[in-house]
Write a structure and sequence with these properties.
This protein is mostly helical. The chain has 20 helices and 4 strands. A two-stranded antiparallel ribbon has the order 1-2. Helix 2 packs antiparallel against helix 3, helix 7 crosses helix 20 and helix 11 packs parallel to helix 17.
Length: 560
């Protein structure tokens, strides 16, 4: 008996960037072309592998749509278990596609700045992929630290004074969050005796008294790490500064890193604090709901108050993160489906906008930009000259259309994915889904729409309106400023990633029905934690090699 070759695909998203990153580390800057193409080939391999995992998890090849890889052939909960399901597979695909676009953007300039950019980029992918796949809390900490350690160097990439200040703040906050993560793990292990997620979920209903209180404290401390990474208010003050300071391809990957924290919260809270968790059932969901709402308000206020494109993108990411956290806390499977769709669409939108910002910044010279700000400050109206007909350069047409597409997606206006996701969330709130608990099969669900549901709808609408105002204001100042437009020079390698990301968003719109169906199946699976617990803990190990019989030794003396 041997392991089927398809199960080895679960390990590829971790091992491939690890090996490629290690191979790139000793290469000097003179090998930058080789480093780029090796890194590019690695990401193409990750894209192909993620597509295969999506097919395997949703195509009936694996039982319950789950593939489990037991590292070292140790059964859970003693060994390290990697789990691929529909949700983790689609997140792996999103990571690979966004990494492909970001890396392609670096070919012209950013990939040549710094010796170890490609090495750190591969390690970043390794950490993100490992966080999506691991089913062990300690290894989740390990992958988080790999991801964060790589991001420390990448935020400093192409360093200047602004990036150094932003990176010091970023490093200090994440180190403090890592300490809380470790303390939370210690308390969870002390009360449950295990760190395997499925095993922890199975033991939580048995906790009571002081053990349950300590477990909740440990879970809260651990959650603070994920919520800091998710930029939940008031923990997300670091994000706009970091996004504005980082180089565009790095900032695009930071958008995904923010979603990693929300993903872990979604995975853990639905698994550990499900309806079957006894006295711990539903722990922290109200905090996620109201904290997510507060995060939406914070992001919307910040987006309205800033006129810097990088900070505007950061606040847009905060709004999307807060929306997802509120969706998790609301506790409706169909709402989670729409929330995951919104996660994917908003990630593509904000990442494309961050890449676009560098190209837009080339439109105006420093002198013209200062003149425009001075005229605005002193309320000086620029009287236009006699209109002269002139054609719009192709570069300006591309930049304005790409900006309009990003604005539509970020604001959630039709017909792009942001609108579809918000419409799906509104429908889920207004039509509550009745679910059956795994424990007793009783159908449960709200009969009326709670006040929190109406508030959530209002905040989503209001945040979209503020995003429209902010993006429109920035667009008018940038593209319709009289006499200050200078068509920039763009390289094909800088344009194609933006077109690629926007094309993916358009594809999400065209294939919305199929994607919603896939995500509905993913949401239904993660809302049935009993199947996860049973599959992980019952996954068999491979038998060892058959031992040959020991040789016999004749101790009887031979006759002379």
């Amino acid at each position: 008996m041997s392991l089927h070759w398809t199960q080895h695909l679960i390990l590829v998203p971790v091992i491939l960037p690890l090996l490629v990153g290690a191979a790139l580390a000793p290469l000097t800057q003179g090998w930058h072309r080789l480093k780029f193409w090796l890194s590019y080939a690695s990401i193409l391999g990750l894209v192909a592998n993620a597509l295969a995992l999506v097919h395997l998890t949703d195509g009936g090849a694996w039982q319950d749509g789950m593939g489990i890889y037991l590292a070292g052939n140790w059964s859970a909960p003693f060994g390290i278990a990697l789990l691929a399901d529909r949700l983790s597979s689609i997140m792996l695909l999103l990571t690979a596609l966004l990494g492909l676009a970001s890396l392609h953007f670096t070919k012209q300039r950013w990939g040549r700045i710094g010796v170890h950019f490609h090495t750190l980029f591969q390690f970043l992918l390794m950490g993100i992929n490992g966080a999506f796949l691991t089913h062990d809390l300690f290894n989740l900490f390990v992958f988080f630290e790999v991801m964060l350690a790589a991001s420390y160097g990448l935020v400093l990439h192409g360093y200047n004074a602004e990036r150094i200040r932003a990176s010091m703040q970023y490093i200090a906050i994440n180190l403090a969050a890592a300490l809380l993560f470790l303390l939370g793990l210690a308390l969870i292990y002390a009360t449950t005796g295990t760190l395997n997620m499925a095993d922890v979920a199975g033991r939580v209903p048995l906790l009571a008294g002081d053990d349950l209180a300590l477990f909740k404290i440990g879970a809260t401390m651990m959650a603070l790490t994920f919520l800091t990474k998710s930029a939940m208010w008031p923990l997300g003050f670091w994000l706009p500064t970091t996004y504005a300071a980082a180089s565009p391809p790095v900032a695009a990957m930071l958008v995904l890193m923010t979603k990693v924290g929300a993903y872990v919260v979604l995975r853990l809270w639905l698994l550990i604090f499900s309806d079957d968790a006894g006295a711990a059932a539903g722990f922290g969901k109200d905090a996620l709901l109201y904290g997510g709402m507060a995060t939406i308000v914070f992001g919307a206020a910040g987006m309205l108050s800033t006129d810097t494109a990088g900070r505007m993108a950061g606040y847009a990411a905060i709004i999307s993160s807060g929306t997802l956290l509120a969706v998790i806390g609301y506790g409706q499977p169909n709402l989670v489906t729409a929330g995951i769709y919104y996660l994917i669409g908003s990630t593509l939108a904000v990442a494309a906008f961050l890449l676009l910002i560098e190209l837009i910044d080339r439109i105006r010279t420093p002198r013209s930009a200062m003149l425009a700000l001075t005229m605005e400050a002193y309320a000086v109206e620029d009287a236009p000259a006699e209109p002269v007909g002139r054609g719009v350069p192709a570069v300006m047409a591309f930049l304005s259309l790409a900006f309009a597409a990003c604005a539509l997606m970020i604001a959630g206006l039709p017909p792009l994915p942001g609108f579809i996701a918000k419409f799906g969330m509104f429908h889920a709130v207004l039509h509550p889904q009745v679910v059956a608990t795994a424990a007793n099969g009783v159908m449960t669900g709200p009969t009326t729409i709670p006040v929190a549901g109406w508030v959530l709808i209002a905040l989503i609408v209001l945040s979209g309106l503020i995003a429209v105002i902010s993006m429109m204001r920035f667009g008018v100042r940038t593209f319709w400023a009289s006499g200050v437009l200078v068509p920039p020079k763009l390289h094909r390698t800088e344009v194609m990633p933006i077109i690629f990301l926007l094309g993916l968003a358009i594809g999400m719109t065209i294939q919305a029905n199929a994607l919603f169906g896939y995500l509905a199946r993913a949401s239904d699976a993660i809302h049935r934690p009993a199947s996860y617990i049973g599959r992980v803990l019952s996954e068999p190990t491979l038998p060892g090699p058959a031992s040959s019989p020991a040789p016999t030794i004749n101790l009887t003396p031979e006759a002379p």
